[in-house]
Amino acid sequence: xxxxxxxxxxxxxxxxxxxxxxxxxxxxxxxxxxxxxxxxxxxxxxxxxxxxxxxxxxxxxxxxxxxxxxxxxxxxxxxxxxxxxxxxxxxxxxxxxxxxxxxxxxxxxxxxxxxxxxxxxxxxxxxxxxxxxxxxxxxxxxxxxxxxxxxxxxxxxxxxxxxxxxxxxxxxxxxxxxxxxxxxxxxxxxxxxxxxxxxxxxxxxxxxxxxxxxxxxxxxxxxxxxxxxxxxxxxxxxxxxxxxxxxxxxxxxxxxxxxxxxxxxxxxxxxxxxxxxxxxxxxxxxxxxxxxxxxxxxxxxxxxxxxxxxxxxxxxxxxxxxxxxxxxxxxxxxxxxxxxxxxxxxxxxxxxxxxxxxxxxxxxxxxxxxxxxxxxxxxxxxxxxxxxxxxxxxxxxxx
Length: 399
Known about the structure:
Radius of gyration: 21 Å
Helix content: 40-55%
EC number: 2.6.1.17
CATH class of the largest domain: Alpha Beta
Low-confidence stretches: none
Mean pLDDT: 97
InterPro entries: Aminotransferase_I/II_large (IPR004839), DapC_beta/gammaproteobac (IPR019878), LL-DAP_aminotransferase (IPR050881), PyrdxlP-dep_Trfase (IPR015424), PyrdxlP-dep_Trfase_major (IPR015421), PyrdxlP-dep_Trfase_small (IPR015422)
GO biological process, one term: lysine biosynthetic process via diaminopimelate
Keywords: Aminotransferase, Transferase
Largest sheet: 7 strands, mixed
Number of strands: 12
Cofactor: pyridoxal 5'-phosphate
CATH architecture of the largest domain: 3-Layer(aba) Sandwich
Number of domains: 2
């Protein structure tokens, strides 16, 4: 086995299961799970219908590159969503379908990192989606963490990275809107990072899987390719974006997303994926085409999340400081006691499961930015979110 396996940390939900292991919650209170970012809104009928209509496609091997119609649909969606003129995105060379962003975010590092170079570095935000760290470690690179703190609106401070780290950096993961904070990197932040990438010759992997869950309909989060184009980087050099239908279309079980950007990088990544054996099934491709073409269900999806945020915050605002992030469906709540104790006692008293922030972060530069926070995913139905808010309010009042 690869010796790098020993460097992997237990996954956050494995730690959470251990934290709850010996606790028996009250039987008179129904369980409410707000720990995992798994959407529970209904998957649109147009996705289900397309799957059923194209089940005959199971008799055929899919290609790694995917159907031309799917890649064309994705290219058109990128152009519409990020205000990039039509025909700038080449669906033949700059778009690849993937089986959800998780597998792509991981495998991209395996393809990209050159471990023969001295001490390769992969930079990532802290807290973070643990796939970034695992991808770096298994690719033989050193993770370098960028603490995202309240003072900087939970955004990474690229100026804080020493030059010697930038010089060894081969890949940086950014997540905007952020998990778990919901913070959004603006165009100026993207511009700074793009200039650094050009200076030090590293690749930017922009995880944008929450980009369609936002509060202000007139101010959607910007994307990395959007900023690159506005800067004149029309070939999107050193840029790859990762998008998914899991959150946007409430279809996590579909395992469908895409990567897009720098054609030279995607040429090599396509070859890697050909050997990796991760082609998207044809029924999934046809369902994805319909999902990327339709925006009505996405607008409704955002409305439902806004409704839940408003109700949840209205209840908790009396007992704690709680704010709605500009995007995502997470509340990044400060806790008056240790985050692990908070999660344990909340489960024991109220039968509500939330995720301790320290499970999503690492001690770095003398700080663990996840300490004394919990991540609350407002994925449950509205009535459950309201019930959860009332129970959390009662719990906070009991402390």
